[in-house]
Each structure stands twice: as C-alpha cells, then as structure tokens.
Write a structure and sequence with these properties.
Elements (H helix, E strand, L loop, with lengths): L7 H5 L5 E7 L2 E6 L2 E7 L5 H11 L4 E3 L12 H21 L4 E5 L6 H13 L5 E5 L13 H10 L2 E5 L14 H20 L2 H4 L5 E3 L6 H14 L1 H4 L15 E3 L5 H11 L4 E2 L15 H4 L5 H16 L9
Parallel strand pairs: 4-5, 5-6, 6-7, 7-8, 8-9, 9-10
Antiparallel strand pairs: 1-2, 2-3
C-alpha cells in the first residue's frame, strides 16, 4: 500500500474508505472513517524495509498485492476505478524500481466488470503487472456469478493470472470475539470461492485461466471428502451448473503453502499435486509464517520437491520462467 492515501471520503462525498494516521515513526493506524481497523508498519509501504526482511529470510523474489481492505468493492464503481488506478500506479512503481525483487498483481473495481477489464488491460499491457488479485466474493456475487464471466474471459485472453484472497468474511457478525473472523471466516471464504468456481463451471468454461487461492485453499482441503461425497449423493443439488465430478478440477488451480502444519502441507500436495502448491507468507501480518518457507524447509521433502514449492509452482502460475536463474 502507499505510505499516504488521498482523502477519498472528501473527494467522493461519502465514507467507508481507509485512511492512514501516521502516529509514530514507521507506524500508522488504518482507520475506516473514525473506526480503528489495524495498525501497520513501514514494511507495508516502504520497499527498502521489505528488502531487508526478504534478505534476512532468504526470500529472493516477492509477489506484491493490495491489502484486501482496500479493494473498495462496495464503493461507487467509478470511485473504485480511481482508487484502483492509484493503488496500481504505486505498486507498479515499486516493481519498476526493483524489477529483480518484486512481481506485481493489480487490483480492480470488480463491482463493474467492464471497468475492471479496462483497468486490467492497463495493468497487464501498460504497467507490466503479472496478474490481478481479487476477493473471495464481489459484494453479493460469488465467484461463479454470470456477471463475472466476461472478466474471466478477458483474463484468460490476456494471460493474466488471478490470486483470490478472502475479505469481508462470511458470518463475521456472529463471531465478533476471539479473532474468529480471521480464524474461521477466512478459511470458509476461500472454500466458498473454490467451490463456487468448481460447481459454477468457471474452470470448465475457462480451462486456461490460472487461479491461485490464498492460505492453502482455506477450509477446502480439510473438507474435500465431504464436498465430493455431497456431489456424489446429491447431484440434483450440486451438478446443476456443471455436471462434472469435482475431482476433475483438482490440480487445475494453485494454492499457497500457508497452513502452519506439516500434515496439512502434505495433504495439499496429495490433493492438488506438488506443481500446484507454492510458498505463501502472508507477509507482513501476524497470521503469516514468521520465517517464510520454514515449513517447507523442515518438511522432509527432497530438494526437487522443495524447488516446486519454493518457486517453480509460482513461476508456472505467474506465467514466467526461470525468474530465479540470476540467483
């Protein structure tokens, strides 16, 4: 995110936007109107701080994406379009300054697919970004909504990868304590996104679309036995938009490795294939891996398998090759 955000509420005439209050050195409060959301540090906006952390952790290349609370899908479409352009210009500038260390993913006004496609074209063809980060839903649309089909078609045609990250967690009103929206809601959001795309036929309609899901696919891997059994016993409810068994789509999309558990990491590899699991860090937030890649390094996998997890799967998803050849 940029170090300074414009006063969007003043510009657009309504509230709900994030603003930053820099209240101490290298620290800022993210505020939504007058409500505190979270505190962030300079590693959210200062590339030089990130590079120090990356060097200490042995991370040679990092993929940058927008903090999801900045998506602004709820805003008026043209206002969200302006915000997206501002955020994408900042992110692209960081990538331009450090092309050997960062790869960028843009953000879009997804509540208006035509505007989203317009900005995606700019991200890919003018800004040189590798792809796009989108939320696990778009307001009231799940990711299978017909309104999004033209967007998927455009992303496939542009060869832009998609990174799906949870936001605005389902059921958050019922679990205000114990950090449960992040612990329970986020995994459910990602599973909702994967199931929506499978059963809604998105992977069937757009077989060349390269999609990755955050946080190891959320709750999807752990509940996949229940999901596929449901398809088998109640196809009348589940096969209404796509007749194919969900097994067909395992290995057709990527997940990251951020599961904090060796048994679950091995489950991901078994379920999706080692070429579809890529190192995820969730840097620089507390639910991320404090030492990025440690789970992979201690997993007992061989060097070839670790190379898939550490970078080769990411290269395939991003549509780049040999990005680490310089190292």
């Amino acid at each position: 995110m940029p170090e300074h955000l414009p006063p969007w509420a003043e510009k657009f005439g309504y509230g709900g936007f994030v603003k930053l209050e820099h209240h101490a050195a290298c620290r800022a409060k993210m505020m939504i109107d007058n409500n505190f959301f979270r505190e962030v540090q300079s590693n959210c906006w200062d590339a030089s701080t990130r590079l120090v952390d990356m060097d200490q952790s042995g991370i040679q290349i990092q993929v940058l994406s927008t903090i999801p609370v900045l998506f602004s899908y709820w805003a008026q479409p043209l206002d969200a379009y302006d915000i997206s352009r501002f955020l994408n210009d900042h992110l692209a500038d960081v990538v331009r300054r450090y092309p050997e260390r960062f790869i960028g993913l843009g953000t879009l006004p997804m509540q208006d697919p035509s505007l989203a496609i317009q900005e995606m074209e700019r991200c890919v063809h003018e800004l040189g970004l590798a792809g796009i980060e989108i939320g696990s839903h778009i307001n009231d649309w799940n990711l299978n909504d017909p309104a999004l089909l033209e967007f998927y078609a455009a992303a496939e045609e542009m060869d832009a990868c998609l990174f799906v990250h949870p936001w605005d967690m389902v059921g958050k009103e019922k679990m205000p304590r114990y950090w449960l929206p992040w612990l329970v809601g986020m995994p459910a959001e990602t599973s909702l996104a994967i199931c929506s795309m499978i059963f809604g036929g998105i992977f069937e309609k757009f077989p060349k679309l390269r999609v990755a899901f955050a946080h190891g696919g959320g709750a999807f891997p752990g509940s996949y036995g229940r999901i596929k059994h449901g398809f088998e016993v109640r196809p009348d409810l589940m096969a209404i938009d796509n007749p194919h068994h969900p097994d067909k789509y395992l290995g057709k999309f990527w997940v990251d490795s951020l599961v904090h558990d060796e048994d679950m990491l091995l489950k991901l590899i078994h379920l999706f294939g080692i070429d579809k699991v890529s190192l995820g860090s969730d840097y620089p937030f507390p639910l991320g891996e404090l030492n990025p890649g440690k789970l992979i390094s201690t997993s007992g996998l061989n060097l070839d398998e670790k190379s898939w997890l550490n970078y080769r799967a990411a290269e395939a998803w991003l549509g780049v090759s040999d990005v680490l050849s310089a190292y």
